[in-house]
Amino acid sequence: MPQQEKLSYSEFAKHLLVQLAISTEGDTTRFATAATVARLVPGIYSRSWPLEAAKELADEGLLRINALLGDGTSVTITGRGLRAAEEYAAELHYDEIHEEIEQAQQATNPAPPAVIQLDRSADAFKALDAEMGRVIAELRGSNSLSADTPREASQRVAELEAGRKLLDAEQIDRGLAERLLLAPLRWAASKASEEVLKKGVGLALNAVASFFGFKL
């Protein structure tokens, strides 16, 4: 890995893409936060660069911006981005990027339990339940989302409502929570065009990920 040094903007953007490929373990469906990934960049750079670089990389088709939330901006890498990351990794003298990704996978924490006990009196649970109620209402009231993909929007909201009902139980299967809570929120994040809705979906995504230990 390169030594700490002051980076040019171009160098920073390349490092950001490489670190995104590594931190997501090459998974084009895994969400990451641009500002968090930027902390892994080995060099000195302006605090304003992560968001700007993410926007430019998205314009080039190398990543997708799922929710534009300032420092909390959520991104996923594209297949084209992975190919570019491999080229940048060689240029920037990283180890073979596939080895870096493998190391990241090996360093991943042990998987959380498959079944999660729910304590409805806990503040974390109350916050999650409130976020789900709010975001479901916002998605139902979104004319733009329904206008673009009415059938899928209706299906995704129905999944979220089913997922919220599961929160009434004493325990929940983590895989089911991923399918009925995380997956439809990811879809909504990728489709939302209204800034208020994007922010709301992003907050709900963070709440679900934090509660269940999902990676974004």
Summarize the structure.
By secondary structure, the protein is mainly α. The two termini are 25 Å apart.
Task: Note the main attributes of this structure.
216 residues, mainly alpha, Arc Repressor Mutant, subunit A, 2 domains, three-stranded antiparallel β-sheet, two-stranded antiparallel sheet, 10 helices, 5 strands
Spell the H/E element sequence: HEHHEEHHEHHHEHH
* Amount of beta strand: 5-15%
Our count of domains comes out at 2
Total number of helical segments? 10
- The averaged pLDDT comes out at 84
CATH fold name of the largest domain: Arc Repressor Mutant, subunit A
Number of strands: 5
Distance, first to last CA: 25 Å
Which strand order spans the largest sheet, edge to edge or round the barrel? 1-3-2
Largest sheet: 3 strands, antiparallel
CATH superfamily of the largest domain: Winged helix-like DNA-binding domain superfamily/Winged helix DNA-binding domain
Structural class: mainly alpha
